[in-house]
Amino acid sequence: xxVSAKNITRLFGSQKALxxxxxxxxxxxxxxxxxxxxxxxxxxxxIITGYLPATSGVTKVCGLPVDEYxxxxxKKIGYLPEHNPLYLDTYVREYLDMVGGIYxxxxxKQKTEAIIDRTGLTAEAHKKIGALSKxxxxxxxxxxxxxxxxxxxILDEPTTGLDPNQIVEVRNLITEIxxxxxxxxxxxxxxxxxxxxxRVIIVNKGxxxxxxxxxxxxxxxxxxxxxxxxxxxxxxxxKQLESIExxxxxxxxxxxxxxxxxxxxxxxxxxxxxxxxNGLILLELSQEERGLESVFHELTM
Length: 301
Known about the structure:
By secondary structure, the protein is α/β, with parallel strands linked by helices. It is built from ten helices and 14 strands. The model has no long low-confidence stretch (mean pLDDT 88).
């Protein structure tokens, strides 16, 4: 595994920012790390990178404990913090040369040019960072996180403040980078997670409340409901329809019926049989997809 956290707790005075957090991220995974503001996401990322110590628990990166091998592990980690810290008066190429020098990279000039090309900064490399748009500043942040070719990439809100076009550009870049890196990505944009991530970890009030493969996200809270819309060719007996196992309620809305259904039970075959048994013609049977956003709200509200 590339990253593991076991029973991580972090206190700030009497406030518990993280409470017994445990998870693992395997090599090559792109994992979305989600939660409302103040849930502990940035704190966990800072502990993984060695920026903050945990109050208790053990964090490992590439099999090594972070608190014992902090300097060695920084060579294996690329980190883009939420508030991208850049020297605005330096030129892009000059800044990346400086970062590469800190890592004592050999063949620095070639590696700087390679990362400038990979992150789409070629046309802007001669400019001062302060003259760049927010989207290109984020690219510079990604370039500094990648210049030493780390095994693990930690990205904290990498698309914050970007316009829709810039978000797509940075998202595509992260997807490309993820082909040969382990990536932990924090964001509030659910579509971004659905587009990029293979797995989702959700934290709330310092605790992990969900850890699931992206394709299984709809089953994260079995007690939740989904909505099914049904239309028959004529009115039916609603109480008889409500007696079907898994259906919680049926509400007429014009010619249609809005049915609240338990998320862990597929009642569509039973509705079809109900129509056949009662001589009804089924004009519409559609189920609202239960996506990441609705699951997130249910788990964190």
